[in-house]
Amino acid sequence: MTGIEAFTSDCPEKTGGDYYERIAADVLQDMNLLRVISKLHVSVDPTVPLFIVVGVIRKLPAIVKVHDFASLQVQGNRITLSIGNESYLAPFLKFLWDRYGKANVEQPDRWTVVLTVPEGGAEGFEDLPVYDPREDIFRDLMYAMICIQPEGFKVRKEAYVDGKFYFVASEDTLPEDVVERQVREKFALIGEEL
Amino acid sequence: MILEPITYKGGLYRHEEMVELIEDLGGYIIQLQQIAGDIIILALVPKEDLDLVRGIAKPINGQVTVSPLVGTEIAVVSMSLEIHHLPHATCDVAEYLRQFGAKTNVIGLARGFGKRIAQLNIEERDVINEHDCAILLYGNFEECIRHKNPKISRGITVPIIATGGPDKEALMKCIDPPVEGYVGGLGRLAHRAKRPEELAKLEEMVGEVSRVLDLRRTEIFKDPLSVAPPRLMDLIIEKVEAIHEVTSPTPITVQMAGLRVKLPYEVYADTLRNLELEQGVRLGDIADVSPSRMRTYIWVQVRPFSETKVMV
What we know:
Oligomer: heterodimer
Largest sheet of chain A: 5 strands, mixed
Radius of gyration of chain B: 20 Å
Number of helices of chain B: 11
CATH class of the largest domain in chain A: Alpha Beta
Distance between the termini of chain B: 14 Å
Number of domains of chain B: 3
Shape of chain A: elongated
Strand content of chain B: 25-35%
CATH topology of the largest domain in chain A: Heat Shock Protein 90
CATH topology of the largest domain in chain B: Rossmann fold
Strand order of the largest sheet of chain B: 6-5-7-8-9
CATH architecture of the largest domain in chain A: 2-Layer Sandwich
Helix content of chain B: 25-40%
Number of domains of chain A: 2
Largest sheet of chain B: 5 strands, parallel
């Protein structure tokens, strides 16, 4: 699969395993997630039934801060922001409304935001975090996993830890030691440790 | 008279000549569809006149192809309506069958997914049983198909063609009770079937469906129907005024042994039952007119000659 260093699968039924490898490749390609993943292992065991995906995510873009997309002018407790990149404007406005209240946030035109902040609020304003791309990528990845898994696997467990993620799903209750034993075993197959 | 199912594809220009020819030869037009400047006619024509039809089509740039599935209504049963099963491969199968003249209905089961939890409810079963055959689109694992098939196929009385990821031999081994047709290598996909080997599988599926339906046709031929469904369709179009008000692309769907009339049952059931077809023979005498489980339509099942002793 293009862009992924290691892509493996295991399944008691060879034909079924091959199909799931293809399904995983198609879904990840459709959702534009191939460039995000560096290693991936898909495991399906229809006899249990159990579906496990483990993977390693490439280095992700850093958290977007105010100075990454806007320049600001401070006049007392009023901050005038000139937006350079509109991509982050929606999460930015939401962040401002939550922090300062709608009454203190004005947007006279598309590219300008005027803000009234409390005394001393302008200090370090430009370094405030606005958007974390990792959250979106993890959410997209988990949605992709739900699309890949056999349908009807409603019992799920997923996590993202230090650039590694796992997704476990089954039709029945998950075994208690699924993460401790089986997920770790699958990580070992791609040369990683949880 | 043996009727051959055909598809005519041509331009709008002089297409009425083809319509008239089919009618004059004693054939039946099942569906006439106009798409911009193109005309597609699904029809049944006498087998011995096929060359004549081809000859008339040639100068008006029309194409006549034999479509073995014209006049059949097929249920394409998807295990659910979620992204796992739609649009691929369910729509690929449904669309491919339409190319051969079949009228396909995709039926998405409410709880068809899963190995242990799969089930078929009564309404789904009844809707499937109103078709000429059902294609059950299973997934990629033998283990799942083995558990799932007895639950999904229970109560289905029409011929079943099962498709799935494992090859045909593996499917035949794991499906118990056995079904009428098997197509292996056609399981769950996440992309549109477009590679040559995938198209070959769809082709194989059409062949299997045709084989199963031919067996059914042979059975019907042994004890012929009291009236041929296409002829009954023509009679209803001629005698029931309200059918012309129906906006559906096929106000009457022709099946191998019946019709689905897209008029409300409560209002028109008695009109149909009392419809005089020929010299005192009423439709109710030679067919069962019952409410369809599909919307409020009417489902007409023609009885065989051995039961009615009448041939229209």
